[in-house]
Amino acid sequence: MELSKGRADTIIGLIDGPVAIGHPSLQQTSIREIPGKLTGTCASAQSFACIHGTLVAGILGAERGSAAPAIAPDCTLLIRPIFGDLSAFSGEMPGATPTELAEAIIDCVSHGAQVINLSAALSRPTARDASRVVQALDYCGKRGVIVVAAAGNQGTVGSSSITRHPWVIPVVACDPGGRAIGYSNLGNSIGRRGLTAPGLAITSLGVDGNPREFGGTSAAAPFVTGTLALLYSIFTNASPSDIKSAALSGGRVRRSSIVPALLDAGAAYHILQNR
Prior knowledge:
Oligomer: single chain
Distance between the termini: 21 Å
CATH class: Alpha Beta
């Protein structure tokens, strides 16, 4: 973050809820909306979708010095909402159907995203429907678009069609000491190909203009996404495989654990600098 705020031609796909684009800390952020069934702008400031989408967007793109961590404010944020829940914010990770998610992934790739942040869970997946998501993720792999996905907050050991995919970086939430939070989902594929990132009491943007805390793997995922976006912005000639490999290789634990390595942006930077 000391080296870069990102570049406008580095595009982050945000598959989440709509975002309070009028928030003062997002006024300088380049935000593009993918037209679809759901609007990218909040219709109700108190909706679950708006609150969640704005919290994640704040970590990625709020201006430096705001309440949010503001990792990559000069990158372009591509908004593709997949849920419009009007219930009160509960702190849980929202869900989307496999078809909705697959369509959103393809849309982000088609509109130029280089990295996609996915802080949502699959709801009511069947084997047939889940295959659509796998096909969309395969498409990301072919196009070199890295997908960062929240591992989930059910406290289970296992995997899903998302976290098992070789082109996905699943993200587990940790406390300030780097210890995985107990409710984060873990598993062999998550441990081998994932990362752990901050996810306890993270301060970001509230839709009412006041800071708001949230946590879990939804909060952890954008730390990884933002890191990848900065690496893309600094190392403009690096390939997607180079970027992904550097981020994963920078971890400080063995890949035999069901708990993934801790995100180390500095180590990833030095790997790319010396390649």
